[in-house]
Amino acid sequence: MDAPARLAPGEIPAIAAEALDCGYEGRLVLRDITFSVAPGEIFFVIGGSGCGKSTLLRHLIGLQEPRRGRVSFHGEPFAAADTAGRRELLRTFGVLFQGGALWSSLTLRENVALPLEEYTPLSRRERGELAALKLAQVGLQGFEDYYPAEISGGMRKRAGLARALALDPAVVFFDEPSAGLDPVTSRSLDDLIRQVRDTFGTTIVVVSHELASIFALADRAIMLAREEQGIIAAGPPAALLESSDPRVRAFLTRTAPA
């Protein structure tokens, strides 16, 4: 099943997945995945455990090569690019991994400065100043010299987001951003994600099964199913509630399929 894009006529998608087959260790997990994400859209990938959400994310961000098909960013195919081209494309997106993926031996400032050290010619002082600015943008002003173990889980997620935003990316990917957070902290993170989109025009892709976040944030979503190894529904969350597939309705209402 293809997921039609919410694109204006002639608009180039921020992300385009074309006929992707995804898998690992000799196992095919997803087949013929096709969808596009419009610039500035908040796009969710949803589905039950084991349906391939994280596998799809790994292929989208270049950690694994698709067996078939291609992923393009702003019209540029990732796999077809040479080393310099891939490096340039990598600068255009950031990733917030599920656990934050912060280096425990580095302060928050040092963690956020890592992409700046890798991809920019800024001096150490300039990197530190910009890292502090990014931390302030996510509500962590004054915590620049704290270590990850010294702050809460929600604050670590915010610090991870600051690092994902360090290079002012056009696209940010989130892997289960609300996992392990209490409802109030989760809502605060949702508000921050929307603020990032609204302030900077950032395209947001979220892998999640959290209903509150799906209905609060998603412009559109695709739902994956393990049985089909692919997309079984696509559209705005409210429209998916009217899906003819009982599995989609059950997932979005937390009820048993009829």
Provide structural commentary.
With 258 residues, the protein is α/β, with parallel strands linked by helices. It has a domain at 100-168. 35% of the residues lie in helices and 24% in strands. The chain has 9 helices and 11 strands. The strands form 2 sheets. It has a 6-stranded mixed beta sheet, sandwiched between helices. Strands 1-3-2-5-6 form a 5-stranded mixed beta sheet, with helices on one face. The two termini are 23 Å apart. 41% of the residues are buried.
List keywords for this structure.
258 residues; 11 strands; 24% strand; single chain; six-stranded mixed sheet; alpha/beta; 35% helix; globular; 9 helices; five-stranded mixed sheet
Question: What percent strand?
Answer: 15-25%
Cα-atom radius of gyration:
18 Å
Helix content estimate: 25-40%
Question: So what's the overall shape?
Answer: globular
Estimate the mean pLDDT confidence.
90
Strands, total number: 11
By secondary-structure content and strand pairing, the structural class works out as alpha/beta
Elements, N to C (H/E): EEEEHEEHEHHHEHEHEEHH
Give start-end ranges of low-pLDDT stretches.
none
